[in-house]
Design a protein that fits this description.
The complex is a heterodimer of chains A (155) and B (76).
Chain A: H1 2-19, E1 20-25, H2 30-37, E2 44-51, E3 55-56, E4 59-60, E5 63-68, H3 70-87, E6 92-98, E7 100-102, E8 107-115, H4 118-135, E9 138-144, E10 147-150
Chain B: E1 2-5, H1 7-13, E2 17-19, H2 26-36, E3 47-50, E4 53-55, E5 67-70
Parallel strand pairs in B: 1-5
Antiparallel strand pairs in B: 1-2, 3-4, 3-5
The chains are: A alpha+beta (155), B alpha+beta (76).
């Protein structure tokens, strides 16, 4: 029984590794996420791309700086992936997030989800980005001509 | 015990980690932090992670734990 459980665990572990790509890096690309989720049993692929916006509340943004508690961020991203794969009917998922300095127009987050049909893929992307913004320990500092603020830090 | 700091909490304390004394629960750590660094009270929220998992106020802290202060996150 124990052996069967261990085998089962190993099987799940390796399946998950094939199904999910989680990455925190100084550079990421949409293509990398798309390539990973590509699979012949999925007819629908949805992608969310988050870029640096050049303005916040009417003020010009010059750059962003992203800081990350990486080991915990990967664990929280893994929880998102688990939910998306186990509960939302998605076969493959990629979540890529940058760290460091980024400028207006640069890509900071990419989420790609592949599912047999499009509805699950759209829903998974929305769930993943919404949850990432609430739970994953990543922080961004917005720089303006006259200073900088940690986004969402104060009420 | 060693406490990791990130984002605005790191800026407020002026260091990436600090040593907290005489605290044995998450709640005690939070009040210790608020006492040492009153500016933390102004934040929208302040979470503590123990061994890379969000921890409730009642959770016990041990010297061997990896403890981190998590100010409001803003990824994406």
């Amino acid at each position: 029984m124990l052996i069967i459980n261990i085998l089962k665990y190993k099987e799940n572990y390796y399946n998950r590794k094939m199904q999910v790509l989680l990455q925190i890096n100084t550079n990421i690309s949409v293509q990398q996420a798309l390539d990973f989720v590509q699979t012949p049993d999925c007819g629908g692929v949805a992608v969310f791309v988050g870029n640096v916006r050049n303005v916040t509340k009417g003020k010009a943004v010059t750059k962003l700086f992203f800081e990350c508690y990486e080991p915990m961020a990967l664990l929280e991203m893994e929880k998102i992936a688990q939910h998306v794969i186990d509960q939302m009917g998605v076969k493959k998922l990629a979540i890529l997030h940058i760290v460091g300095e980024k400028f207006p127009g640069d890509t900071v987050v990419v989420i790609a989800a592949a599912a047999p049909h499009r509805a699950a893929a759209f829903a998974a992307c929305e769930y993943a980005i919404d949850t990432l913004k609430e739970t994953v320990p990543i922080w961004k500092k917005e720089y303006f001509d006259d200073g900088a603020v940690w986004v969402a830090a104060h009420p | 015990m060693r406490v990791l700091l990130f984002g605005i909490a790191k800026d407020i304390a002026g260091a990436p980690f600090i040593t907290a004394e005489g605290v044995s629960t998450v709640a005690e750590l939070k009040s210790w932090l608020y006492g040492q660094y009153p500016a933390l009270r102004q934040l929208r929220s302040l979470m503590v992670a123990v061994n890379k998992v969000y921890a409730g106020d009642a959770e016990m802290l041990n010297a061997a734990d990896e403890i981190a202060v998590i100010p409001p996150v803003s990824g994406g």
